[in-house]
Design brief:
Number of strands: 11
Structural class: alpha/beta
CATH topology of the largest domain: Udp-n-acetylmuramoylalanyl-d-glutamate--2,6- Diaminopimelate Ligase, Chain: A, domain 1
Shape: globular
Order of helices and strands: HEEHEHEHHEEHEEHEHEHE
CATH class of the largest domain: Alpha Beta
Largest sheet: 6 strands, mixed
Number of helices: 9
Bound molecules: zinc ion
CATH superfamily of the largest domain: NIF3 (NGG1p interacting factor 3)-like
Distance between the termini: 52 Å
Mean pLDDT: 95
Number of domains: 2
Strand content: 15-25%
Helix content: 25-40%
Radius of gyration: 20 Å
């Protein structure tokens, strides 16, 4: 059995989710870890919360493959008494590396939004905002933020919401509709995670429903007013940020398993059992 080093893992991750696909404001890649260290097991998670790091310690994982960055904004200290510094100390003192693929995983083919729209049976979706990487760049083909595609037949908005509720992990905040729940629609746009910056692209795409997460009052009301001055679309379906992305982790694990095996490496891959959706009760 050949176990990969952290550097081998980084190479696998960056082949599947090229860092060139990340947005310019993002932070992706190896945040903590020694490239020369051996990796026998990897824990896959969405959020580098203390509870996930504690899980990695208990499971004796050597690397956490994570979606959201631990260090998005610059820090000037890793003092262990600070939030980020404490996490970094725990990781290093337990020999655990931390890698994240964020907007590059959103944009990649087979990425977060592709998996989300595939829950509705749409397998040939196009990017909502295609990457404008040079055409010669192979990784740029068919990549970009969000996805748009068509259902096989017109379906009521509430049926789409119910399907999502059944196929996404159950969450406290559930699945919410803004617009007309009874409207029959075919063209669907999605963006896993927070997608309230994409309304213009959604309108340009002709989508009749937009599925995303973290929709706040003002962007949602303004989007509905804009829709109502035209033909009422897009209707909005708001899902849990965590749920919208957690379905991608299974696809990521399968892609990693295939890529490590193809390279002759043996490594344990385990999905975090910690639910990092912050909302726990609703009245
Ligand atoms: Zn996210």
């Amino acid at each position: 059995m050949t176990f990969p080093k952290v550097a081998d893992c980084v190479d696998v991750f960056e082949t599947l989710w090229p860092p060139a696909l990340a947005e310019s404001w993002d932070s992706v890649g190896l945040a903590v870890g020694d490239p020369e260290a051996e990796v026998r097991s990897i824990l896959l998670a969405l959020d580098p919360m203390d509870s996930v790091i504690a899980e990695a310690v208990v499971l004796d994982a050597d690397l956490i493959f994570n979606h959201h960055p631990l260090l998005l904004r610059p820090v000037d200290s890793v003092n262990a008494s600070t939030l980020k510094g404490g996490a970094i100390h725990t990781l290093i003192s337990n020999g655990i590396a931390l890698f994240n693929a964020h907007t590059n995983a959103d944009s990649a083919r087979g990425g977060v939004s592709d998996v989300l729209i595939s829950l509705l049976g749409i397998e040939d979706a196009e990017p909502l905002v295609p990457h404008d990487l040079p055409a010669a760049t192979e990784v740029g083909t068919g990549t970009g933020i969000g996805r748009v595609g068509d259902l096989k037949s017109p379906t009521a908005v509430r049926e789409i919401a119910r399907t999502l509720a059944a196929r996404l992990p159950r969450t406290t905040t559930g699945v919410r509709i803004a617009g007309d729940p009874g409207a029959e629609v075919t063209r669907i746009a999605v963006c896993g995670g927070a997608g309230d910056s994409l309304f213009e692209a959604v309108r340009d795409s002709g989508a009749e429903v937009y599925i995303t997460a973290d929709l706040r009052h003002h962007p949602a009301t303004e989007a509905r007013d804009t829709a109502n001055r035209h033909n009422g679309t897009p209707h909005l379906i708001d899902v849990s940020h965590w749920a919208s992305e957690s379905v991608w982790l299974d696809a990521a694990a399968a892609a990693l398993e295939a890529e490590f095996t193809a390279r002759g490496f043996t490594v344990g891959l385990q999905r975090s059992a910690v639910n990092t959706d912050p909302w726990v009760e609703r009245y």
